[in-house]
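Subject: sequence -> structure tokens, single chain

Hey, anyone have a minute? Need the predicted structure for the following. Not urgent.
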Amino acid sequence: MATDSDERTEQRAFILARHSRHGLMLLQAEKKKKGIHFQLPGGHVDKGEIDKLGLADAEVAAAARELFEETGLDLRSHLQRLRRCRFGAEVQKRLGTRAFFEVDLYDEDSLHHNSREDLVAPITVETGFLLHLSHEHTGFAFEKDLQRAADMTSKHSGGKCSIAIMATQSLYRPEDAVLKESASCARGSDAVRCPQTAVENAAQQTT
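Reply:
Had a minute. Here:
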């Protein structure tokens, strides 16, 4: 029986989980009105989570909880792996009360080491990456093309997940700048003036 602390709120939290080789992870579902469609892991933030943690931390906790419940991937003790997507004002207005977080997936995140017999592989690529899906989902896929991923999730959460997926293309990620700068320095490009460290350069760009 649900208590007051378990009450759903209008706040929702979703995860964009990406594997560097396979792409964005999408969960397949089938409902009477929507038919077969795809979703991002995520769901409602509970009132108890907000009362205990405050809204911002509750959104992170809810995203990790939903990821675990829907896929078996347990990041609840590794919340630092969830990076909040900070969209522009216009995009965030369209997303309403939905928060989105990015997570990098690695081969070792796969549940292949788990002894469960009901683990499933993705329906799109041949890989040993396995998940334990909730009863709400019938499969999962990896999709590299963001436009296609947005189309696949167009029926999820009023189309808001599609908006978020496309909007991630314009997000500024300091860690990406560090990687690009490091790669240029490693190649010894004359066109790039390498700072003392690539991290310092990324920090300068944010000031």
